[in-house]
Write a structure and sequence with these properties.
Length: 201
């Protein structure tokens, strides 16, 4: 129920958290486009103007609702350490673990789904993949082909994630993590450390 004293008291931390909780619920269950700010405000029990006050716009609210406990790159840092010959398996296991987790998985799926229909969000996902994961993998590999190998690796990895968690392509969507790793990791590792073109075709 909307708090009629909200305007008199001014915005509070609790009202911001209620907005975020309502936004996460609707964005993650119904999608970005299907939900109105007025509906989110009603669920949170606040005036819709408070959303603009705190977040500026629907996109601003969406970005805040997707905030994760840690930067995705931070989650991969330990996977990037260690033997390069097992790098693909470590990265793949860490990504799948993060996407399968009940806390971090829904925001990531919502982000990826929104990226397919919202121009600014597909730019956001592209920049994150390029500036974070791709660059980190390239730095770990070294050598003249590092950037190209990292770009192909990142593209194939994101394609797998999209197919498994957003498109729900079978049987990949239903495979246990160990099966996905057993089937896919050797192919990804070939990109990282296998033979490479000496020049562009």
């Amino acid at each position: 129920m909307k708090d009629n004293g909200e305007a008199a008291r001014g915005p509070t931390a609790s009202s911001r958290e209620r907005i975020l909780a309502a936004a996460r619920h609707y964005f993650f269950t119904e999608g970005y486009q299907a939900v109105s700010l007025r509906r989110i405000a009603g669920e949170a029990g606040v005036d819709v103007a408070l959303i603009a006050y705190y977040f500026g716009s629907k996109r601003g609210l969406f970005s805040a609702a997707l905030s994760l406990p840690a930067n995705p790159l931070e989650l991969l840092r330990d996977a990037l350490d260690g033997d390069v010959d097992a790098l693909a398996e470590r990265v793949l296991r860490r990504l799948l673990t993060t996407w399968d987790h009940p806390t971090s998985g829904p925001p990531l799926r919502a982000l990826m789904t929104a990226a397919t229909s919202q121009e600014n969000f597909n730019v956001l996902v592209s920049e994150a993949a390029s500036a974070d994961i791709c660059d980190a993998v390239a730095s770990r590999l070294g050598g003249p082909d590092a950037e190209a190998r990292a770009a192909v690796f990142t593209t194939q990895t994101l394609g797998l994630v999209f197919s498994r968690y957003v498109l729900r392509v079978e049987p990949i969507a239903s495979w246990p993590m160990d099966t996905v790793v057993a089937v896919i990791a050797p192919r990804l590792q070939q990109v990282l450390s296998g033979p490479w073109l000496t020049s562009a075709p």
